[in-house]
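User: Can you recover a sequence for this backbone? Please restate the input before giving your answer.

Assistant: Of course. Working from this structure:
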C-alpha cells in the first residue's frame, strides 16, 4: 500500500474492533514517545536550515535501518501533500491537528501500511513515535513503539539528561517522553449522569480526559481520550500499569451501568437506539456533532445486541468518514458547511443501510 492508498483507504488498524480486549468499550490504545535530536534547535524555534537538517538525519536513519518495521514504512512529505490530505491524516488520528496545518518541506510523517505505527516528524518535537491499536493493547503498543525507538537511536543522537530523562519541547513530557492513552466509548456513564463525578475522580488520580482528537477538543458522542498527565518521575511500566488499572475500572463501571440500563430502562433504551437509527437512515441534513451523538446511541445498540447486522467496525469507520476532509474527498472538491451536512446525511444513510443487508 502506498501513501496515497493509505490516504484513500476507509480502514486504519485501530478501527478493527475484532482485535484487542474490551473492544466494545475501548476503541483504541496508543503509546506515543517524544524524542528530540541532540544539538538541533527544537521545532518551536527551528528555521528552514535546522528543519531540513533534522529531516535529513531522520530520513537517513529510516533508509539505512535494517528493521523490518521501519523499512516497510512510507514517508509522506508535507510539502508534497495537499492540505486536504493532511486533514485526512488528522481525522484518522495519524497526526495531530497542529501538525496537519504544516506544509514545510522539513515536516512529514513516516507511517506503516495499516497506520498502526506513525512517526510525526518535526511536530512539537523532532520525533513523535506513536503506535495505535484497537481495543485495550497498551503493552503491545509499547513493545512496537519501543522497538522503533531503539532502532532509530542506533543512528540518531537523542537529547537526554541523566537526571531529567528525555528532553522535550513541553515540560510535561520531560522524563520518559511517553504519553499513554486509550479512546473509550462511554454512553452508559453519560446516560446515567455519572460523567462529571467519574471524570473528576480520574483527574485526581493524575490522568486527564479529552475529546476525540485530544487536547483542546470537546467530548462529543460520548467518545473520550484518557491519558497520563505527566511523564517525569515515573517509569514507562508505571505509566502503563496505572493507566491500565484506571481504564479497567472505567470499563467495569461502564459495563455495570449498561446492564442497569438494560434491566431498569429496557424500553426507553431500545427506543433511544431505534430513534437514533431511524434518524440516521432517514435524515437529509446532519451536523457533525448530531451525527456523533446518534452514532454513539447506535453503537451502544450494536454492542448490546439491540441492533443486528451492523458491526462496530462499520461505526468506527463512519465516525471518521463523516469528518469534513473525508466528505470532501468523497465528493471530489470543497464544500460549504451546509452542503457538507447534506453529504454527511447521505453517506451515513448509504453506509448503514448497505451494512445492514
Amino acid at each position: 500500500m502506498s501513501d496515497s492508498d493509505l490516504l484513500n483507504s476507509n480502514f486504519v488498524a485501530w478501527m478493527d474492533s475484532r482485535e484487542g480486549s474490551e473492544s466494545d468499550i475501548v476503541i483504541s490504545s496508543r503509546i506515543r514517545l517524544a524524542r528530540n535530536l541532540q544539538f538541533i534547535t527544537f521545532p518551536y524555534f527551528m528555521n528552514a536550515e535546522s528543519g531540513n537538517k533534522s529531516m535529513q538525519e531522520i530520513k537517513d536513519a529510516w533508509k539505512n535501518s535494517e528493521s523490518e518495521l521501519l523499512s516497510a514504512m512510507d514517508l509522506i512529505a508535507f510539502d508534497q501533500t495537499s492540505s486536504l490530505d493532511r486533514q485526512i491524516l488528522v481525522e484518522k488520528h495519524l497526526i495531530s491537528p497542529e501538525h496537519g496545518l504544516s506544509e514545510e518541506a522539513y515536516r512529514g510523517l513516516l507511517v506503516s501500511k495499516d497506520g498502526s505505527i506513525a512517526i510525526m516528524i518535526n511536530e512539537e518535537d523532532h520525533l513523535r513515535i506513536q503506535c495505535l491499536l484497537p481495543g485495550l493493547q497498551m503493552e503491545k503498543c509499547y513493545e512496537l513503539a519501543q522497538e522503533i525507538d531503539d532502532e532509530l537511536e542506533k543512528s540518531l543522537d537523542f537529547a537526554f539528561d541523566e537526571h531529567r530523562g528525555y528532553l522535550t519541547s513541553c515540560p510535561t513530557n520531560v522524563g520518559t517522553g511517553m504519553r499513554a492513552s486509550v479512546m473509550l466509548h462511554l454512553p452508559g456513564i453519560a446516560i446515567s449522569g455519572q460523567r462529571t463525578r467519574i471524570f473528576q475522580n480520574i483527574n485526581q488520580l493524575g490522568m486527564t480526559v479529552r475529546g476525540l482528537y485530544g487536547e483542546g477538543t470537546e467530548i462529543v458522542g460520548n467518545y473520550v481520550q484518557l491519558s497520563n498527565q505527566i511523564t517525569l518521575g515515573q517509569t514507562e511500566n508505571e505509566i502503563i500499569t496505572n493507566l491500565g488499572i484506571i481504564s479497567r475500572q472505567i470499563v467495569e463501571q461502564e459495563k455495570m451501568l449498561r446492564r442497569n440500563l438494560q434491566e431498569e430502562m429496557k424500553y426507553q433504551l431500545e427506543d433511544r437506539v431505534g430513534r437514533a437509527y431511524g434518524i440516521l437512515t432517514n435524515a437529509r441534513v446532519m451536523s457533525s456533532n448530531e451525527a456523533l451523538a446518534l452514532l454513539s446511541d447506535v453503537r451502544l445498540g450494536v454492542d448490546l445486541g439491540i441492533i443486528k447486522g451492523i458491526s462496530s467496525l462499520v461505526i468506527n469507520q463512519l465516525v471518521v468518514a463523516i469528518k469534513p476532509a473525508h466528505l470532501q474527498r468523497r465528493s471530489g472538491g470543497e464544500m460549504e458547511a451546509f452542503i457538507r451536512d447534506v453529504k454527511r446525511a447521505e453517506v451515513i444513510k448509504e453506509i448503514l443501510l448497505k451494512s445492514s443487508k
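That completes the design. The longest strand covers residues 26-35.
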